[in-house]
Fold this protein.
Amino acid sequence: MNDKVGFIGLGIMGRPMALNLRRAGHRLFVHARREAAMKPMIAAGACACASPAEAARQADILFVMVADTPDVEQVILGRDGVRDGIRAGSVVVDMSTISPAATRTLAERLRERGAELLDAPVSGGEAGAIDGVLSIMVGGPETAFARVLPLFEVMGRNIIHVGGSGAGQVCKACNQIAVSHTMAGIGEAILTAKAWGLDPEKMRAALLGGSANSKVLGIHGQRMIDADYRPGFKADLHRKDLRIVLETAQALGIALPGTALVSQYFNALVGRGHGDLDSSALFRVLEAIGGLGPAVD
Amino acid sequence: MNDKVGFIGLGIMGRPMALNLRRAGHRLFVHARREAAMKPMIAAGACACASPAEAARQADILFVMVADTPDVEQVILGRDGVRDGIRAGSVVVDMSTISPAATRTLAERLRERGAELLDAPVSGGEAGAIDGVLSIMVGGPETAFARVLPLFEVMGRNIIHVGGSGAGQVCKACNQIAVSHTMAGIGEAILTAKAWGLDPEKMRAALLGGSANSKVLGIHGQRMIDADYRPGFKADLHRKDLRIVLETAQALGIALPGTALVSQYFNALVGRGHGDLDSSALFRVLEAIGGLGPAVD
């Protein structure tokens, strides 16, 4: 409770996460690019900071929750960035989903100032952020993890320290690999059921009781059947996550044929302007390819 | 309890299923190609029949549990087959996983003799058969389903009537599409974790708590991590199931790119003589492709 807490990035995910920290009684120093995003936080009793550097000056533990690798690099290394304000002994916790390789570089640059970086990407989407039940996959120094754990526990439920710097991001990459495949599989299953005239609702119910049971079948399977693609987790961000996975695979020199295939579906979906739909809308691409639905337009 | 029950096919799956029926007190008439397979059933109080026709003559409800489409066709339409012995008013229940199109033809041929066919493929493997907790996906006439349901309840736990003749097989096809994709996804995730130096056990534990949670991650993920490929469900049969899926897709005129990809892994695995391994051994192919493991040999 004594640590002063910073939070940079108050979007769909960051805002409810920061609000949960505030509600738990923490002194909160926030920054967001758009001033409007800070207003509800100020109303909730947080202090608004003019720059990431300013938030870093105030905070002992500083969370970052933005969209992509370049955003985190800008927040930490850019002009008036976190690195300019951070004090020795502080911990920066990047909860964005970004490149594991970039994470290691950022950790080095912060270490030069005596600060530590945890990479702590999450799974569970907006609903998980609001309810404080996110899964949090954490990489970085174990002592820093132990220090931040009480704050993680305000935001999430399944919190695992998986290894050194970057390990959290790799774990999140693994999560997206698994989710993407499962989603594509459920999509092909629904496509097959529909083409044959089998009620996809009955198919889903039958599969939920057996070896095909998965969270994706429960949640995204239902969305595909209902053609209800309100997010959820946006296709645009899913595509970004798979880009990171495939960049990582290239850097590691490994082949991920299935992930490469599914990433193409997201390219087609986002390329036609559907990036704001829930990621389960990849079913629209399968329908188009499968010859059952209208072309993705 | 009054119906006389027949059971044809006493292999890894059929034998424990038939034993459960016998233990539940049903009069049982069994047939298997290999005489040795009938011995434990005779010891358990079942009557051995010399042919499928003979079992059909005795039984009011006759189960078939063999490997593939041609096996079921042989059992039902072949010399001394079920069709030669079946009485009007009887129900044949094919619990094998075979072609939905062939199922419809078989149903017509039995209807000519006044008998009905249910297609009732299962999910859950040998363990599910032994414990009587199989998932059973049933297609065919609803009245026949209602009549057989008490017997299904001896063998399974999640029993769903999904539609008309063939619908059970299509549902099983959907199950295998979903399971295959999920398995490949978990495989690529473990490959990525290993290549980066992230402990795959920790990765699995983290993913089990979030949106990537699935039965496949729990069961097959552990087998891949342990390289423990004792079956389980044999790669050979998984390959056969995917062949049926892709034949069905061709007949329906739909594209299933992911299933087509995963089926190639099973071709490689089985082609090198590993058909007797558990289907999760597809991870060996991913390792070989991925450049981490030894070639599949």
